[in-house]
Amino acid sequence: MRTTFSAARLLVGVALAAFFAVGSTAPPSAFAQNIYSIYSAFNGPDAPIPDGKTAEDVENYVGPSDFLLDKAGTYFYVAEGNAGRLRRVRADGTAAAESIPLPFKPNKMRFFPGETKLAIVGGGHKGRLAIVEIAQASENADATPKPLPLRVVADYPIGHTPSDVSVKRTADGRELVYATLQFENAALEIDAATGKVERRWDVGREPFCAELTPDGRRYVVAGRITDKRANVSYSCSAVRVIDLDENEVKKTDLLNGHNLLTDMTLSPDGKFAFISAVQGNYLSVTSQVSGGWIAENVFLVVDVETCEFVEVFFLDDEQLGAGNPWGIACSEDGKRLVVSLAGTDEIVFIPLERVMKTLADRPEWARPGFGAYMYSSFATGEVQLPIRLRVKFGLKGLRQTIVRGDDVYVLSYFEDAICKATLKLAPPFEYYPNSYVSVENPPRLLQADAAETPENADSTAERPDDSAAEAAAFAKLAAETASNPNAGPPLRFVELEPRRPLKGVEITRSFARLAPKPTLTTRRRGEILYHDATACFEHWQSCVTCHPDARVDGFNWDLLNDGTGNLKNTKSMLLSHETPPSMISGIRADAETAVRAGFTHILFKNADEENACAVDEYLSSLRPVPSPYLVDGELSESAKRGKILFESDRTGCAICHPAPHYTDLRLHRVGSQDVNDYIDAFDSPTLIEVWRTAPYMNTGEYLTVRELLLEGKHGARDGRLDKLTPQEQDDLIEYVLSL
Hints:
This protein has eleven helices and 35 strands. By secondary structure, the protein is α+β, with helices and mostly antiparallel strands.
């Protein structure tokens, strides 16, 4: 399948080269990298860390994790993931923001029908569901609900790491909440009035995004990463559809390499689910990154009724990757599909009508991927709108996305901001030179703003004056917030220069901060860089492409640090700086060396030492997530018995995996040498968080710890584990999974 795509891409590239050769300058073969806007926090000063303090002590970022815009378009509701608050702020900027502290750090949220309440989930390993009252319903069903003071009216424990939430009202008036638990591999149906879990479904590995169909009959759940063995030639994430009426779960696998399923939206009629994802080409030798050789960026289409994978559409351009797609949303009128590119600081406008036509016109024999590049929009004759319009913002961490007609709003996680873009079309269209695709430098500011514009900013930029009345009103509102800990500044959108990719198309853009521009610690800079695809040649991928949350993607990769043909399973970055050597083969002396080699040989950019040190700082700051096998944060009785076995001579586990890091920092021969490996000894990894790092061993051939120990005889080929009773085996496995 990948060969077919590459061939198609080559033919299209030749055609486009011929097109641009006439009367225009061809796009450059290499693009500028790591160009940041003057208004980005990444370009600001470092946050000082006093003696005796850590980065975490001084970081006070808002970290918006989700946001909603009410039906009337009056209020934004923002879940402040880092700050642990809910914020309500007028979209027109005419009033100060309100906020309340939440009993946990929120992750996702959804309106109840009627928009009088919110369902909010979060809390990490101590996952909770909060119901927040926000408005009073009007007697007139068509009228906008009257805002009430924000108030938490219910708070329920629900499980380990809630990742998404949906809400419906049944015919008999009951309100039900649907939530996914990332590290319990489960979806829940919860009675909103009591917090009781009515139903629970197994939905596979790491459910990360989900949507409830408009009719409330089906719940669509996407797993973040593959749950298959890695020593095979077919591995991918899966999507499941729960028929709520029949209480049945259907599963569909995707194309080989589809992984990092991050966000989901449904077509307005509820027929299709669109899911942002990455296509990891893990069967390729990682000798280059150009052309998406290692990873491509896509959105997937699943038929909700049949739970069948229908199509994949590529977001990348020939010489410009769309690194790490995140948010995805449809306009209610069915005209627009918009995807945020978290790794490249962009959003992408796609005509949804053309996507739907492509789906409708597919031949019956066509497999997913047929026509997926959609370059056919460059027809001979009348100039057509390109299938993808990419828009740069220059703010880091563009994630959750809302589409309202021609307006798009997207959260900037790392900048504590809301970005806005408006697509204005005035056909007929006409191409400018290089109008198809080019790297766009971050836009300049247009509006005068002392807080955003440095002294050396371009003084020739257009800066329309605010009226004196508007300026006075804003100053008054800002002053009111200073004395109220639950108030915040009003939204003030700062205009950026518009994007005009071709004649007849204009995209205006602006952003509004939820808090003063963050001052970044070195640790936070490293976190941003780890997620930054502009740090990669042609912007195809970032570190998280293979290491989501700095953990594993579940694939085997053919890295060239130990030759070719000997694929190795992805290794978690947790404790990498504390447990040298690095890489499964131990080929890198330490994590510092590995980070710099990663920039050079995986992102294909020379590592700037300051940036590499920032990534070191971020990785060193990672903390283990408590295991879902713990009971109230403690070892279960079974795990306590397993701990005794683990440390005993009967198993010998602690010889190679001693506490506290559960590794002896040495290479060992454990019989896992591949036919193409030139070495037969491999690194003893830490067992901390082993519960989330399947598949296991350098070969990735074991899906569970039970398989690894009892079938693979890991470290015990003398049969010592076979001498344990079934209960003792269970206890040992329970302990290992609790680390």
